[in-house]
Write the structure tokens for this entry.
Amino acid sequence: MVRGVFYLFLTGFLFPGQLAMLPLYLTFSKAGLVGNPVTVILIYVAGHMPFTVFLYCAFLRDLPRDYEEAATIDGAGSLRMFWTVVFPLARPVTGTVAILTALGVWNDFLNPLLYLTGGNTRTAPLSVYTFVGEYSANWPLVFSALITSVIPILVAYFLMQRFIMRGFASGLKG
Amino acid sequence: MNRYTGRTFALELVLIAVAAIFMVPILVLISVALRDPNSTPGFLGFTWPLHFENISTASTASAMGPSLVNSIVITTVSVALIIVVASAASYTITRRTQRWSAASSIFS
């Protein structure tokens, strides 16, 4: 059963995101959520779930259960054991997941274009697109906007570089 | 103890060459960003004088400030939710001890 649930998550790899684009848009449109950032957040969370679960499962399977057994003896419940023992131990893989998903979400252009165009909640890639016209583009301004838009994610990368390297070294082994 | 041999030197040269190749797109990005917006197209080489005002012009014209704030909020909330939900689900999947735990992981 557990293996089935794991593979259920992994089936998410099989389906391209474009397959769900039209049904999702119609659903969110009927719900009145187009133009709301919650829409893209929901899509990102659901879309990144298979890959993230795959990474966490690979890491947690190799994690010794001794710590959890010690916590059980000390009287910790399941939730407390997870948040105070297991989650801190999974910091390398958390760092990897954070940077990979953050990069994917930050650079995504299609979903904000579909759901956030025309409102006050457009994202940085949509602002860069301001200078791209139908027949021409002002490339110096496009590239200047690109430089501005990459600064926050670059700062985040340098701040988390230690975790990323450790995560790639230990968190991705199956 | 590793000795510095001719092979090490060759490897260093290869790595420097690879690093230089990786730098090319970044140099193109910077060179195009700092050239006169009315200049003729062309992607290689810097043109003088450098127009640093392009960055402020682009930021103002495209309302980049609010867009960056929106991007930061959406990215932060999305990443936090992904980590919380996926780690909890993965923990349940890998440490399940009871039959109903697998079913509960679907809703976690």
